[in-house]
Design brief:
Elements lengths: L1 H48 L1
C-alpha cells in the first residue's frame, strides 16, 4: 500500500507540473501575439514620437 500511495503522490505532482506547463505555454503564446501586434505599429509609433 505504501507503494500505491507513493505512486499516487507522484501522479498528483506530475499532473500539477503539466498543468503549470500548460499555463506557461498559454502565457508565452499570448506574449508572442501581443509582441507581433506591437511590432506592426512600431514604425508609426516611432515616427509620431519624433
Amino acid at each position: 500500500e505504501a507503494e500505491i500511495e507513493a505512486s499516487r503522490v507522484k501522479l498528483d505532482r506530475a499532473e500539477k507540473f503539466l498543468s503549470g506547463l500548460s499555463d506557461q505555454y498559454e502565457r508565452w503564446t499570448q506574449s508572442v501575439k501581443d509582441l507581433t501586434a506591437s511590432r506592426s505599429t512600431l514604425l508609426g509609433d516611432a515616427l509620431i514620437a519624433t
